[in-house]
Amino acid sequence: MASNFIDNFKIPDYILVPGSEVEYVSHMPPCPVLVFVNSKSGGQLGGNLLKTYRTLLNPKQVFDLGEQAPDKALSTVYANLESLNVRGDQFAKEIKEKLKLIVAGGDGTAGWLLGVVCDLKLSNPPPIATVPLGTGNNLPFAFGWGKKNPATDEGSVEAFLDQVMKAKEMKIDNWHILMRMRTPKEGPCDPIPPLELPHSLHAFHRVSKADELNMEGCHTFRGGFWNYFSMGMDAQVSYAFHSERKQNPEKFKNQLVNQTTYAKLGCTQGWFSASLSHPANSIRSIVCLNLPSFSGGLNPWGTPNRRKQCDRDFTPPFVDDGLLEVVGFRNAWHGLVLFAPKGHGTRLAQARRIRFEFCKGAADHTFMRIDGEPWKQPLPVDDDTVVVEISHRGQVNMLATQNCKSNSMYDPSSPCHDDEDDSDEGSVAEEFRKFGAADTFRIPDEVDFSHLN
């Protein structure tokens, strides 16, 4: 590409440094960007990508999320833009109107930035492009940015920037999640064991006695998600994977190793222990899905045929219709039908609001996951309940390429129906051993497909 191509994205120093004086700039970049890179994602890839972006662009417009949280970085930039705008700087005003964000990392990192943009309540929130730099890469795949971890050379980064400049804006639903549990009657106030919650879920502090969200005598946590909330066996496997990666970070240096380890953990965690002969209501994993990408690009909901839409009042799975698709799985063997043509899970419902209640029972904990980030959730040991409520919060702006997998209810080109056979199961031949974000990723050979018969 031409040497001046990068000028389309560069932002001058004075825009990025608080307290700067208004400057005259002759060139207005048509596509100014702020780049956020998780330098710890993808082994060495995150660090290499950070260096390349800082070499090509102004280093001040490229942030390492390992050193600076996105809320602080964005707050600083927008405060300076507003200050310059008040002082009559038209350049700052145009930057604010045209700004786009790029985030490189796993789904959890992307969700972190999306949450920050939402919390800042900007009058003109910037659209976001996602670089696939994780294990599943569901968010990037859903909007056409691919599944595979990217190359980090200058040519590859320039090609990505070119896609960003040409990408279309697309709104997606933002879902609010609230979790509430009783504080213990005796002992410390913090949950035991302490919760290691994802970035997108945090403690909600009381602001008044009349506050309905934070009831007296309860721990309340709240946050948001854009792709999915899941609980059960699937989240347990993810939790085991993340725990092992924390203990042995040197082992997880590339995407293929990560995904193969993930699949093997599925075999050892009991996810493959049951057969498909179990009753349909024996659900061991529930997924509340917003985007058509789960576990590295699979679509558990699919598209119901005309008869199913009519019988159960289902609608096509749009990402901006204020509806979540709720899907259940009995075990991993049931999940393997996703690799068959038009395979899908057990469709439970479409909903605008969901409430889960966990009462005293056989288990003292379960596993939950939000957009790729899992945690171990204690369950009641007395007669109390743990409540999880999900509700529609609003929408955020994403950037989508021409390969976008997500459908908008406002886009005439989005399909209204599909004549699928709507069967719950399908043959899983050798070709379906390949799944996940990397084309070379395979289900381990020790997994016996005869269980599907």
Automatic annotation (TrEMBL):
Keywords: ATP-binding, Kinase, Nucleotide-binding, Stress response, Transferase
Segments of skewed composition (Acidic residues): 418-427
Pfam families: DAGK_acc, DAGK_cat
Enzyme class, spelled out: transferase
Keyword rRNA-binding part of the UniProt annotation: no
Region named Disordered: 406-427
Enzyme Commission code: 2.7.1.107
Alphabetized GO MF terms: ATP binding; ATP-dependent diacylglycerol kinase activity
Location of the DAGKc domain: 28-181
InterPro entries, alphabetized: ATP-NAD_kinase_N, DGK, Diacylglycerol_kin_accessory, Diacylglycerol_kinase_cat_dom, NAD/diacylglycerol_kinase_sf
Keyword Plastid tagged: no
Catalysis performed (reactions): a 1,2-diacyl-sn-glycerol + ATP = a 1,2-diacyl-sn-glycero-3-phosphate + ADP + H(+)
Record text on subunit structure and interactions: Monomer.
PANTHER family recorded: DIACYLGLYCEROL KINASE
Stated family: Belongs to the eukaryotic diacylglycerol kinase family.
Protein name, as recorded: Diacylglycerol kinase
The species this protein was found in: Flemingia macrophylla
